């Protein structure tokens, strides 16, 4: 009782802050979740009508309609057929001799109002032109000219079936390796795509502020993806809180970076088209949203790894202190940072390879290339992602350690006390152990000590020198001749004659026997 009372009142004992930390983390995540829901309602898009940009309109000013088609025949011949792009039933009209040849492809229309009919595509050879082959499945654009005649043109290759097969293989491999957790991760990925399509893009088209839209979208994705893939527990909660904090930091750093570097984003063709045809959409806000959403994947990877490492280290060593667990988890985190930074930078560099290739032959200085708007955007995106990645590791590790180790360093109980309280067959203390005289039997040997063998009951056989001259040796042993008497007769022996290499130096050698070593005998 005294030991138990002392354990609860010793000021040097464990500090119980785990329950408080858990309540704080759960309270913060609950409050953030409520704010995210309020922000979702406030920023929800109104789905207002937006005019279709001019490059994406058909001849009548509406949306472009695409149909399916298949190349049935192909040849190289004169260009200028009147059937080029027109609908016909059987064979195209003969081309006019224009002096140059084209790749002529006969395409069967397999969908839409002209299904079952044909059209002809004449494509002049040159860079960037499609190289159609017989059997290729195509997406062809259907539109009407000012006279009301239907015209078809090449749009792109049909990639629906190959992409479906690749996606199915992706899902099968993920589920086969990660089982149910992998399936939940795939479902979370689908939810993230839905948030981008249903909420983020329409909200930005409505002209809503980009940073709040990106933060709310990122928070919705993180809440769903993390809890769906890793379960609702303190480990996932610590990773979620660390990721949300790093995402807010990414938003602040992205805004500061764009303000300091004066990045416009107009060097990219897509941004220039948005600025031209969707003038109510902020290009700077679009860049900020791209920075924030782009950092979610790598931040999620690092934070969940750190939380898992901290919880596993705490479970492996119950006597480890918070400081020891934090130091061990940070060693894992540093390795992860070193490898992930390379991944982050190389991924952005891979996306900018065509641009870098053009700059390499432009004859501009290396400084001008790096500080140009197009390359500076990729550098800034990599730097912001790397900073948030590095800072998310210690932040998530601290949260996870406080949750994984509810108490501080818990000293191990004394071995004697632990054995006396919890072990049935353990040895009692020396003060409580009865002696052999009290029980009438030998005391049991202590644990982890080698047992001594009992002494043999019969006396060992003595050597010749151990017997007196008048003593009778045991039966079966030869007798040694007296020093001053006649030689005794020894029994016959079958051993080979004495050899020096067979001699035993440990045998007693009688110095008064002149024939010792020169006769057969049991020496």
TrEMBL record:
Keyword entries, A-Z: Membrane, Transmembrane, Transmembrane helix
Task: Enumerate the PANTHER family for this protein.
Answer: MEMBRANE PROTEIN, MEMBRANE PROTEIN-RELATED
Which taxonomic lineage is given here?
A: Bacteria, Bacillati, Actinomycetota, Actinomycetes, Mycobacteriales
In terms of InterPro entries, this protein maps to: YibE_F (IPR012507)
Q: Where is there biased composition of kind Basic and acidic residues?
A: 509-523
Originating species = Nocardia transvalensis
Q: According to the UniProt entry, which residue ranges have a biased composition of type Pro residues?
A: 475-484
Q: Region labeled Disordered — which residues? A: 410-523
Instruction: Quote the protein name from its UniProt record.
Output: Putative membrane protein
Q: Where are the transmembrane segments?
A: 21-44, 160-178, 185-204, 210-228, 240-258, 278-299, 340-363, 383-404
Biased amino acid composition, Polar residues: 429-438
Q: Does the keyword Iron apply?
A: no
